[in-house]
Write a structure and sequence with these properties.
Layout (H helix, E strand, L loop, with lengths): L6 H33 L4 H47 L14 H42 L4 E5 L5 E4 L1 H6 L15 H12 L4 E7 L5 E9 L2 E8 L8 H17 L9 H26 L6 E3 H4 L13 E3 L2 H17 L5 E5 L7 E7 L5 H8 L12 H7 L5 E5 L3 E7 L33 E8 L8 E10 L2 E10 L8 H7 L3 H4 L5 H11 L4 E4 L2 H10 L1 H4 L7 E3 H9 L7 H7 L12 H21 L5 H8 L18
Parallel strand pairs: 12-15, 15-16
Antiparallel strand pairs: 1-2, 1-5, 3-4, 4-5, 6-7, 8-9, 9-11, 10-11, 12-13, 13-14
Length: about 650
């Protein structure tokens, strides 16, 4: 097709067709003229001579004019247009003399080509800088991992080693790339840990045997389709007088369930007192065991890790307990199998009567298991990777015990208490920003600030009200780092029902929470040297300033307010509420998270991060720019940097 031909050829064909049409018209005119001359009696010879001469002159003139015009089109239009097209494709601007007959098209194309060249150069520089930063961070992480005290081994989905550090080389003699991991570590422990990861946790602890028969502690997590193992030497525990401790533990552990079997009425107050003392005795026994052994549980585990491979009738709470996941999961699965061998069908469950000590339960329909039978089950080694470690040893290492008891509805259960981890969750993972040391000069840019976004929940809406919850998230270099702060606060007064209806925090929830002095002091430590960000910051900062005489804590951090930043982007007349900003910026706040300190903090952090590019586009690039522009919005909201009340 002609549309597939080069531009110059298409123009040539166009002019050739035009020349042919003109010649055809001239020929037709000459034929008509000769016919009319013949009708007038002119001799045929004379007609032919005259028409031939006219045809020659007209034809040559037409062809010459057409060729000349085509050459002009080709030189001053077709060739420059092809040059412009090539310039656009390659980013090279054509010379001005070649495009002077194309009016504004030539300058426009040159500007576009120059802009493309500048953009390509800027992109190339950015890619080079980013590649340099990545290479530097990679080198830094490699140096850290090379001398990392724990051994690190990474294997692919087929179990072949694709990374290890020097510590792993010391722990696993002969380790090499592209070899199977099970040549160096027993496969049973890896498979059991993989089953726990499949239960939905990010990482799990295990104890494994090396090819040399050495026992090691390890932590395993999924990395893409493979696994990452962090290995540590397993130090042997000091010998402890476990016989006496076990006898003491058993008396304490059986004290509480014996209350249900007592005959005759017992005053409720006395029953509660005995139950309380029994639990206290059990806890003190655990503390004594850990003190004598010099160690307690060496790891932390989520409940879903411990329940891997067990049937459960209900969703498990997202709690973390002090336990070695591999050992405790192996024990629970061993007990589950033992119960099933007796014809029972146990289900895993959790009792949360004591918030600090969840009780792991195996519940079945039937009678309790005799203690002698339970002791026999505990005498076996539940973990094939540790054949010398019995179930009783695992319980002793965790400073806990287990008992069987009857429950209502013709059911029975095994009960195994474990202590809740203090912070209630596992660490968020690796946190780093190697560029922080390079931002001394540029630290005042909004995108480079180190900030803490925070929110408070209170007993009311006045600065004289008390704080009941504080939450914060850290931002560095324009991204959330994963570092967080979240605590309930005992306000020292009753929480009004109206406030509870909004944030769902009850008096019972804060009864054992830190008081305002402890909570605010911890929050002040978390926010050190950071810019504070809040939605309607004068209110939250007013609360902190109002109690500084009581707490002795002075917040002198610079402050940014997302209400103020929103007004700088959309003007004062827009709706600047948290819900309106979240909807405008397509940020979803789950209904259950709204009006909780952490839920509102997450929303405020996302709002701030999305406002920064819009502010920079308006020329508001630094913290100082915000302070200067804030003066224009005094009638909307106070500047939280100037809202601190004077101490009296």
């Amino acid at each position: 097709m002609i549309s597939d031909r080069p531009l110059r050829l298409r123009i040539l064909l166009l002019f050739a067709a035009l020349a042919g049409a003109v010649l055809a018209a001239i020929l037709a005119a000459l034929v008509i003229a000769g016919w009319r001359m013949s009708l007038s009696g002119v001799a045929a010879t004379a007609i032919v001579d005259a028409l031939a001469l006219a045809a020659l002159i007209a034809g040559l003139g037409c062809l010459g004019a057409t060729a000349g015009i085509w050459m002009l089109f080709d030189r001053y239009l077709a060739r420059p247009i092809e040059a412009l097209a090539g310039g656009l494709r390659t980013g090279q601007a054509p010379e001005e003399p070649d495009t002077r007959y194309l009016a504004d098209l030539g300058p426009a194309v040159r500007e576009a080509a120059q802009a493309r060249a500048r953009a390509a150069e800027a992109l190339s520089r950015a890619v080079e800088e980013h590649a340099s930063e990545l290479a530097h961070e990679k080198e830094t992480l490699e140096n850290i991992l090379a001398d990392f005290g724990a051994g690190a081994v990474m294997a692919d989905a087929h179990g072949r080693i694709m990374f290890y550090n020097s510590a792993a080389a010391r722990l696993l003699r002969g380790i090499a790339l592209d070899r199977r991991l099970d040549r160096y570590i027993s496969s049973g422990a890896i498979e059991a840990a993989s089953a726990r990861l499949a239960a939905g946790v990010d990482a799990t602890d295990l104890v494994c045997l090396t090819a040399d028969g050495e026992r090691m502690n390890a932590r395993m997590r999924r990395v893409d389709d493979g696994i990452l193992l962090i290995l540590r030497d397993r130090t042997s525990a000091a010998a402890v007088p476990r016989d006496r401790l076990e006898a003491l533990r058993r008396h304490a552990a059986t004290l509480v369930p014996m209350l249900d079997a007592l005959e005759g009425p017992m005053p409720p107050e006395l029953a509660r007192a005995i139950q309380h003392e029994g639990r206290g005795l059990a806890r003190e026994t655990k503390a004594l065991s850990e003190l004598l052994s010099g160690k307690g549980p060496t790891g932390r585990a989520r409940l879903v890790e411990l329940a891997a491979g067990l049937s459960s009738d209900a969703a498990l709470p997202n709690l973390v307990v002090l336990a070695d996941a591999g050992e405790m999961n192996a024990l629970l699965r061993h007990l589950d199998k033992s119960l099933r061998d007796e014809g029972l069908t146990p289900a895993f469950d959790i009792l949360l009567e004591d918030p600090a000590e969840p009780h792991l339960c195996l519940v079945w329909s039937g009678n309790p298991v005799p203690m002698a039978c339970l002791d026999e089950w505990l005498s076996y080694a539940p973990d094939c990777a540790q054949p010398d470690l019995s179930g009783a040893d695992i319980l002793a290492m965790h400073g806990t015990g287990i008992w069987s008891e009857a429950v209502s509805g013709e059911q029975a259960r095994l009960v195994l208490p474990l202590l809740l981890a203090e912070d209630g969750h596992l660490p968020a993972g690796l946190t780093y920003d190697f560029a922080l040391g390079k931002r001394a000069v540029a630290a005042s840019r909004l995108s480079d600030l180190t900030c803490v976004v925070f929110d408070t929940e209170t007993t009311g809406l006045d600065v004289t009200d008390r704080i009941v919850q504080i939450a914060g998230l850290r931002i560095a270099g324009g991204r959330l780092t994963g570092e967080s702060f979240d605590t309930l606060v005992n306000p020292g007064r009753e929480i009004p029902p109206g406030a509870t209806a909004i944030h769902h925090i009850t008096n019972e929830m804060v009864a054992e929470a830190p008081d305002v002095c402890a909570a605010v002091t911890a929050f002040h430590h978390f926010t050190a040297e950071a810019v504070l960000i809040a939605h309607n910051a004068p209110f939250d900062m007013g609360l902190l300033h109002a109690i500084r005489d009581e707490t002795g804590v002075h917040f002198e951090n610079p402050v940014l307010d997302t209400v103020l930043l929103s007004a700088m982007v959309w003007g004062q007349s827009a709706d600047h509420s948290l819900d309106a900003l979240a909807e405008r910026l397509s940020i979803e706040i789950p209904p259950e998270a709204r009006h909780s300190a952490m839920g509102d903090t997450i929303a405020t952090a996302e709002i701030f991060l999305r406002l920064v590019p819009a502010l920079e586009a308006k020329g508001i690039e630094t913290f100082e720019d915000v302070i200067q522009r804030a003066r224009q919005f005094r009638n909307l909201i106070a500047d939280a940097n100037q809202a601190a009340p004077k101490s009296g």
